[in-house]
Design goal:
- The protein has 176 residues and is of the alpha+beta class.
- 22% of the residues lie in helices and 23% in strands.
- A hairpin with a 4-residue loop joins strand 8 (165-167) and strand 9 (172-175).
Amino acid sequence: MAETHEGATRRDFIHVASATMGAVGAACVAWPLIDQMNPAADTLALATTEFDVSGVEEGMAVTIVWRGKPVFVRHRTAKEIEEAGAVDINDLPDPETDGARAAKPEMLVLVGVCTHLGCVPLGQKATDPRGEWGGWFCPCHGSHYDTSGRIRKGPAPTNLPVPPYEYISDTVIRIG
């Protein structure tokens, strides 16, 4: 056999070239399979939601949708803020201060899914029962939440979650 540069043979070149082409071919086959696991464009569009809270009057609550889940936005009254702030956090099953749950005390933003079994608690409409602490009530298993969305009574293990959100102007919030 003909020896080439420093003992390498044509056979060595063919092996390296074949392995390289095999690796490139495998990558070309694998890429579409891996890429299809990325979220679809319609899913990415739901990753964030912007909402203008200026239309939510004091004492009023609205429900918006973010990532297919209900999000409760409540413009709390001064009395509701005072009641939520006066709670001794040592008395709560899932201790959390009211200040840690609301960027602005008057506007509360919560994911409206009961942390027990995923029901949607009542309390958004003026005619809904709001439980013993005036917040939300899940009639499925009797969880009671206060005006800060903290669990006060019932089987729910944790407070209603606060979604990641920020104020992008004085009246517009971006959730997600």
